[in-house]
Design goal:
- This protein is α+β, with helices and mostly antiparallel strands and 308 residues long.
- It folds into three domains: 3-102, Zinc finger, CHC2-typedomain (DNA Primase, Chain A); 114-181, no CATH class; 188-298, Dna Topoisomerase Vi A Subunit, Chain: A, domain 2, CATH 3.40.1360.
- Helices cover 33% and strands 23% of the residues.
- It has twelve helices and 15 strands.
- The protein has helices at residues 3-8, 11-17, 64-74, 81-92, 125-133, 138-144, 206-216, 218-221, 234-241, 257-270, 282-285, 291-298, and strands at residues 24-26, 29-32, 44-47, 52-55, 60-62, 114-120, 146-152, 158-165, 171-175, 178-181, 188-190, 199-203, 224-227, 248-252, 277-280.
- Strand 7 and strand 8 (158-165) form a beta hairpin.
Length: 308
């Protein structure tokens, strides 16, 4: 494990392994009891967007490697950078989530040099056919997706893709030949029909979300939904759940090791919330890898479903 991979592991994962869980969430930061000493009043802040920390009791902070060096020093162990990397590597082999860079689909482009030229309602026949191949109801797709025209800054070429907007104005992008995103990269939040909702659903990607709505309907989902857009964005979902009053959280992660890791981390977080039940939906679409694969397998021959 190199230093960049180590720094990419989300701080909440390491803290959960140390049996430290958020005492309070505020925007994009989380407050913990310090793992560097015994204390009764939390003073250890984790900044989720930058994956950094600051301990006001120690007047120290930094990235994950800096934290581990301080932790090793407090434990009276060797605390060089090499020692910290070895410690993190040992933790990573003990069921902790792999660094986000290793989660990416080999075909996914996460930082393409793209310019959004325009967006409009879905009309392009190739995109409609692609939705048909994924068995996504076209009317549902039009409620959530846009047809986005993009330009590759490096080549100057233009192309079209389905665009799913996130909370910071970036797009998740898909077409039959391309999977990527524009910056900024973060989660998407879909409010249910009758707020405030008592149910929250958490999906890995928007195709899974649209598949669940296409197959099961909004009445079945009956609540708000968070689409992570990348499991590296998991910690960004926590403030949307914290103290909102949800009573049930449904998780729809992939049936693979990465999905199991994310489900475990969500479960750890949900234990810090009052009176919220966690229901894992994996058995519904097992043995398929994800919701869309199950939806396609359960559907009639692929075609765009333009009328409901």
């Amino acid at each position: 494990m190199n230093i960049d991979h180590a720094k990419a592991i989300p701080m909440p994962e390491i803290l959960a392994k140390l049996d430290r869980h958020p005492k309070r969430l505020s925007g994009d930061k989380a407050l913990y009891l310090s793992p560097l000493r015994n204390e009764k009043t939390p003073s250890f802040w984790v900044y989720l967007k930058t994956n950094s920390w600051y301990d006001y009791g120690e007047a120290a902070g930094g990235d994950l490697v800096d934290f581990v060096r301080h932790y090793l020093r407090a434990s009276k162990e060797d605390c060089t950078t090499s020692d910290a990397l070895r410690w993190i590597r040992n933790m990573a082999t003990n069921d902790i989530t792999i660094p986000p860079i290793q989660f990416l689909d080999k075909h996914e482009i996460t930082d393409p040099p793209l310019i959004v030229k325009s967006s409009k309602q879905i009309e392009h026949l190739a995109l409609i056919r692609y939705l048909g191949q994924r068995n996504i109801d076209l009317n549902i797709a039009k409620e959530h997706l846009q047809e986005v025209q993009l330009q590759n800054k490096a080549s100057g070429k233009n192309f079209f893709a389905l665009g799913f907007k996130n909370e910071d104005g970036g797009y998740e992008l898909r077409n039959p030949f391309f999977k990527g995103s524009t910056k900024p990269k973060t989660i998407s939040f879909v409010r249910g029909d009758n707020p405030p909702s008592q149910h929250i659903h958490v999906f890995e990607g928007f195709m899974d979300y649209l598949s669940a709505v296409s197959r099961l309907g909004n009445d079945y989902l009956n609540g708000d939904s968070i689409i992570l857009n990348s499991i590296a964005c998991l910690s960004k979902a926590f403030p949307y759940i914290h103290n909102y009053g949800y009573r049930v959280a449904y998780t729809w992660m992939d049936n693979d090791q990465s999905g199991a890791n994310v489900t475990r981390l969500l479960s750890e977080f949900l234990k810090t919330q009052q009176d919220i039940q966690h229901i894992r939906m994996n058995n519904l679409y097992a043995p398929h890898k994800d919701v869309n694969e199950w939806h396609v397998a359960m559907s009639s021959p692929t075609r765009p479903m333009s009328n409901r």
